[in-house]
Amino acid sequence: MSAEQLKPFAGVWKRTNVDANYDAFLAAQGQGWLARKAAAVAPFTKTLTVSASEANRFDDHTSIAGLLNVSVSYLIHGSEAEARAARERKEVAVEEAMGKKSELVAWWNEETSQIVLNRVFATEGYQGFYRHSLRSETVLQLDLEIARLDGSSSVISQELFQRQP
User: Would the pTM count as exceeding 0.90?
Assistant: First the structure.
């Protein structure tokens, strides 16, 4: 993985679409009916920046309707195996929002040209996979999966984002 592979993902991205399974994706995370309905239609912006200090680190800021803002900086490992080893060493990015805490590792999937984020919500008993891919220079696709840590169930959804000038 190189900084050149990551640079096309950098930018400001505004969500333009969620698929029909988005409500189930949010419900699997314990979100209530009103929060799910609001999240599906709220303005949602992601700002991804390649860190100035490390070429394989992203600074990621998410804003939902300007009311919920989450910023995290994470290292993008060269493979899933490297990311899993980092998790075992407790080298994770910690995120806290809406009363929940996750531990994040990320990696570059060479086969699919995706940035994959894996957030583990240990207290809640589930993990999320957030697979970022570019459909074009201006369209970011985010494939979402929430899976119970015991393997009993999972829910898949998708969001699309448009690059902003």
Answer: yes
